Amino acid sequence: KAGVTQTPRYLIKTRGQQVTLSCSPISGHRSVSWYQQTPGQGLQFLFEYFSETQRNKGNFPGRFSGRQFSNSRSEMNVSTLELGDSALYLCASSLEQATRTGELFFGEGSRLTVL
Amino acid sequence: AQKVTQAQTEISVVEKEDVTLDCVYETRDTTYYLFWYKQPPSGELVFLIRRNSFDEQNEISGRYSWNFQKSTSSFNFTITASQVVDSAVYFCALSDLVMDTGRRALTFGSGTRLQVQP
């Protein structure tokens, strides 16, 4: 069974640009969560999508957005990039909503560098 | 106060030593879940265990064991006879109801970096 796939794995952008990251969950999983990981802030929850609806959202500005498609694949977008957005963005999928009893299966992440 | 506290930022041991990673959590919810995840150098977090608040039975899985104590709000993780392959960052996480929003949230601790020297 294929794991969670994130693309691209690495990318470099400049301030002011926007970026779209993609996540393909494990087949059959309906929940996709996104996390930002930085050395200073650790793992911070961005949002969770379940059955194409955003079910939960962390404390991030509106520049961070996401969506989920009918096949459960998800994308997250960051507009007007800032230096502080440099991070490893992790996607996780689960059968049920992540914050219920389900365990999370993480992808290897997309490492974004903003110059 | 942090909801999930992993006070040990980095631990270094020599192979075959036992090591315990501490996790202290804070919640007002009565039904909550605790997790441990491992993040090897490759970056992908790997689920290790889930515990619900009603099950205080300790669990052992091979060289791994977990000690859940509600009285001290702790969910500690012990690796027996550590190996070099155990080197990773370990995260403790809590899923509980956030009173302000009425929704459940999954909160990770800051992680403990374990280095096992040969």
Note the main attributes of this structure:
heterodimer; A: 115 residues; mainly beta; 7-stranded mixed β-sheet; 4-stranded antiparallel β-sheet; 11 strands; 0% helix; 52% strand; B: 118 residues; 6-stranded mixed β-sheet
Description:
The complex is a heterodimer of chains A (115) and B (118). Chain A has no helices and 11 strands. With 115 residues, chain A is an all-beta fold. In chain A, strands 2, 4, 5, 6, 9, 10 and 11 form a 7-stranded mixed beta sheet that branches. Chain B has strands at 4-5, 10-14, 19-21, 24-25, 33-39, 46-52, 59-61, 64-69, 74-79, 88-98, 103-108, 112-117. In chain B, the strands form 3 sheets. In chain B, strands 2, 5, 6, 10, 11 and 12 form a 6-stranded mixed beta sheet that branches. A 4-stranded antiparallel beta sheet of chain B has the order 3-9-8-7, with no helix packed on it. A two-stranded antiparallel sheet of chain B has the order 1-4. Helices cover 0% and strands 54% of the residues of chain B. By secondary structure, chain B is mainly β. Chain B starts with a strand and ends with a strand. Classes of the chains: A mainly beta (115), B mainly beta (118). The A-B interface holds A 3, 33, 35, 42-43, 45, 55-56, 88, 90, 92, 97-101, 103-109 and B 33, 35, 37, 42-47, 50, 52, 91, 95, 103-111.
Give, in order, the helices and strands of chain A. Answer: EEEEEEEEEEE
Number of helices of chain A: 0
User: End-to-end distance of chain B, in Å?
Assistant: 37 Å
Determine the oligomeric state from the structure: heterodimer
Uncertain segments of chain A are none
- The secondary-structure class of chain B comes to mainly beta
- Show the largest interface: A-B, 23 and 22 residues
Mean pLDDT of chain A: 91
Number of strands of chain A: 11
Overall 3D shape of chain B: globular
Structural class of chain A: mainly beta
